Amino acid sequence: MKELVRVGTNYIPVMDVEQSIEWYVGKLGAELSYQDHDKAIINFANQSLFWSNQRKTKALIL
Questions:
Q1: CA distances from 9 to 1, 13, 29, 50 (A)
Q2: What confidence category does residue 30 fall into, taking pLDDT thresholds of 50, 70 and 90?
Q3: pTM > 0.85: yes or no
């Protein structure tokens, strides 16, 4: 049986992409991989986090 080694990317809707980047990069040392006006990808703790502006994306709320 194969085991899960890594989850490649997590999708996280955020209210403010720029503010999220500033906090994760500035406070936690994450690495910004991609950014445009309403989305970004950062690398942090061996994970890729994909953020999209929640105002333009329908978020799943559980």
A1: 23, 13, 18, 7
A2: very high
A3: no
